[in-house]
Amino acid sequence: MKNNVKYYRLAEISTKIGSGSTPKGGQDNYKESGISLIRSLNVHDFNFKKENLAFIDEQQAQKLKNVIVQKNDILLNITGASVGRCCIVPKEVLPARVNQHVSIIRVDEKKANPEYVLYILNSSSYKQGLLNLAETGATREALTKNDISNYYIPLPEIGIQNEIANLLSNYDQLIENNKKRIIILEQMAEQIYKEWFVRMRFPNYQNTKFIKGIPEGWEANKLEKYIDVYRGKSYSSSQLKDWSELPLINLKNIRRDGGFRRDGFKFFEGKYSKTNLAYSGDIVMAVTDMTQSRDLVGRVALVPNINVSKFIISMDLIRLVPKKYPYLFFYSLFRYSGIGHYFKQFANGANVLHLNPAVVLNQTIILPNIELAKEFEKLISPLISEIDNLYTQINNLTKTRDLLLPRLISGQLQIKSKEEQRIKGSITPFKQKQIIAYIIKKQHEKKMPSGEMVLAKNIYLAEILYGVNTGFNWQNWHYGTYDGAIRKMLLGKDQFFVKEKIGNTSFEVLALGENKAKILDKKYYTPNIENLEKAMDELLEIYSHYPTKERSRKIELLNTTCKAIADIQSLDLDAIRNAFKEWKTEKADFPTKWHKFTKEETEECIQFILSKNWDKKLLTN
Predict the structure, then answer these.
(1) What is the pTM of this model?
(2) Which residues does the chain have with pLDDT short of 70?
(3) CA-to-CA dists, residue 303 to 277, 288, 343, 411, angstroms
(4) Whole domain around residue 92: which residue ranges?
(5) Helix/strand/coil (H, E, C) string of 125-156?
(6) Are residues 151 and 161 in the same domain?
(7) How far apart are the C-alpha atoms of 158 and 143, rounded to whole Å?
(8) How many domains does the chain divide into?
């Protein structure tokens, strides 16, 4: 069912749109505390940064009384490189004013939900619209009050706005929780490094002899003895593509405090040298900086594992390759020791700062013995791995949130009502075992018995394609969709299910146990089970046309493709293949579904889904 969506100018749904100014005297007249003065550096997409928040006194604030910030105000950056960034003001920074680089958008909450409006402004298409306005106006990289006031956004009825905002805020909460966990893990890694190699309290330090403050067995030498440096690729704009199989790591991938940003990739197509390449786990350093404040130069990042075989790095970066020492030791040295801050003072240039890699190689450092460095790596490796996993989760959550928004607005994707959610929650473990039992029964009747993983795929397909209410919570496991509750039910003591060997082979399939009469008792038969049986009849008929040796693989491909379409709410082949890249397996020869299934296989599967009209089910679930 489509939503009744109308388009309104921001001025029509707002009670105030406007920016402020900087108090006379500029930052020299800022105070230690008082009334917050919000500047563009505080405003980020969905996120308000309190670092470097300025303060003014009552007298200064009185001169800015026309831009008093109120609860739920949207803050929009309107000038400079950060134009278009926006968030909702956090209540803890109030009372507050804004300067001339930030505009207030005060939504009339009788007409629109501020959080919903924020999601629209931060969505890719509407964000690009703001950026286009900023670039084509009379003043470059600036949004005027008129630009903002006349900017059209889609508005369904207020109840739908509230539901959309509530749903998407759940994703934001998960993202925020993961960010907090990353901060804690980063602090732990930093403190371990400093404890061992700055405060010199490494294991057995009490029994170590120190000579002029340096532990015996440690050595001092230039970095060129321990690392090799490789320059990045100089490229032209014509070599950048919307997508290619060679992601380009560039300055946007480097965080200002060090670490890797996954949203900064560009994509390269053209000739390159092997020395321009980087791989997951490599260390890259920024040697160029567009900011005169030297926020990036000298900072390092660890190339993440995103299921890409190789990357290419831009000319603004260098790749640091340890000769003998562990990678994570050198990454921690560059990240946590303060040496990056030291290097940045040697960067020079009129408009763009450049750091000569020779400065890095000529720097003398003190290194522990290699055994201690390996011991350190062993200790922090789980922390770095978990940080990488959390960033992957954030990336997936962000993509899902952004893909959901346009479909939620249009009504292509319906938000389940509280009553629908209550009904799903009413599926008891016994009813779930019933579902398992009837699937096993059908599989044996059609002479296609299976193990646990194919069973799980069939349950998922029956739910997503035929509307069977199963009550399971689906996750992307290495062999397909799965819920750990299934195994607990199969191993239960109620003897509903057993495993049987097929002939003289070691292969086992699921079968019904000695208490099957109870689980199949007709007094428990419901319309939901009737629907399940019809679903299994059709699915098993489809499977019967698969060659026996390929059946398991083809079922997995169908299951994977359906889950990807439902998750990303798109039938676009490249988008689905990208979702496959995020779906990890436990096989060395095909670490992701992208590696396991070819592009041609995936396209053929999508066409089959379209021929069955299943796309209508997948894009509205």
Answers:
(1) 0.65
(2) 1-3, 25, 137-140, 412-426, 620-621
(3) 11, 18, 21, 39
(4) 6-155
(5) HHHHHHHHHHHHCCCCCECCHHHHHCCEEEEC
(6) no
(7) 27
(8) 4
